[in-house]
Design brief:
Oligomer: single chain
Structural class: mainly alpha
Shape: globular
Radius of gyration: 24 Å
Number of helices: 19
Strand content: under 5%
Distance between the termini: 56 Å
Order of helices and strands: HHHHHHHHHHHHHHHHHHH
Helix content: over 70%
Amino acid sequence: MDTRDRPTTEPEFIPQPLPRLSLLTMFRLGLFQMGLGMMSLLTLGIVNRIAIDELRIPALIATGAIAMERLVSPARVFFGQLSDSKPLFGRHRSGYVWIGAVLFTSLSFITVQVLWQLGLSLQTSGMTAPTYGWAALFAGCFMLYGLSISASSTPFAAMLVDISDEDHRSKLIGVVWSMLMVGIIAGAIIGSTLLGEPDNGNEALTNVQQVDILALSRTVNPVFIIVPAIVLTLCFLATVGIEEKYSRYSQRSMVANSEERVTLGTAIRVLTASRQTGFFFTFLLLLTISLFMHEVVIEPYGGQVFGMSIAETTQLNVFFGIGTLVGISGTGFLLVPRLGKERTTQYGCIGASVCALLFIIAGVGQRVELLQAAFLFYGLFAGTLTAGATSLMLDLTVAETAGTFIGAWGLAQAMARGISTIVSGGVLNLGTWLFESPLLAYGSVFLLQSLGLLLALILLKRVNIKEFQASTQTAVSRVMEGELE
């Protein structure tokens, strides 16, 4: 028989397994989160302090402008979906991360320059039309800053899903989110050092005419040049080459290499296809609201109930930061592999709830050391449940719409931080009106915080990852076939 007549078959192509992330690579990725932590303290902490205390800009205008960063949080869903469907520079995630980082680091400096002009206008003209114009521009800068952060951080989180496997994702979360806390601590050091340098005298804090804005800008401007430059460098060091080497997106996604792309409409339909999405969104919303209710009241609580100085109440954040850093890093490597993500998150909720009650107990006896210990352990349990819940969040995705899901979870968290501030302030005002004792007024906030964490625990028990993965993957298939109405 002529061998030329023999049928031939093409050898089957078997994709080579992609390398797994090493611990060193995880820390490298964490440099991006470290930069975000530094920027958060730089823009929110320092800008807020200068605007209200040094320049005497009305607090409603200053905080309202800064709040614009979170009011644009719905854009996270859009940017997540965009990174799913439209690659930049041949990459699904990295291009968006880089462009967003260039924008938010540049906008931080521009925002400060607008702040100086707002202060000068207020100083020379008072609250006139030009001053309101600068205030509007100041708010607009924060809006653009928030959009840039969303454009960068949401695709970055989606990239963490792309490059990791479920069995070692908790370690990745532990490392990367620990680096976020390192960045926040570093930013706090920079901020406290900077705020200690300008010396305008006590009159500068009570009379805006005494503030030398030019001298103040000479001190502050270099910080908003050097630190953003460092952050931008960290961003590129963290991400260059990572996606090409480790991303599993093309292997996991049924449309990654096809001409058909996931549109925003189909992504939203996939996002809402499983009831588990609603359960987890509600859980994440309530968890974040409860977790941060102490944020705007803990320092006034220390001053009014314990008689602590400003320096002493500021140091409470160090206890919280250390506890959170240990909690996040230890959870990813020790607890999640042994207990699982859901049980770890449950234990974190219970522990944080108990610590919130300890805030009240410490106030009854005015025991500062108990308050400090409670805040340390609150940070520990907050880090534990953050690492567990974040690992769950990354599991509750599908390859085709990972960015969209990450955007939705980011939206829930951003909304919750704003709601948390409003709720805790409102409860404190109500408690002050109802009770003569400051302890009872602040205690009502902490009691609600404790109950909220326990309610989040109940909602968590309704989250079922297997049901989510099955129903959502089915929805993806139907959407791609045009069968989902």
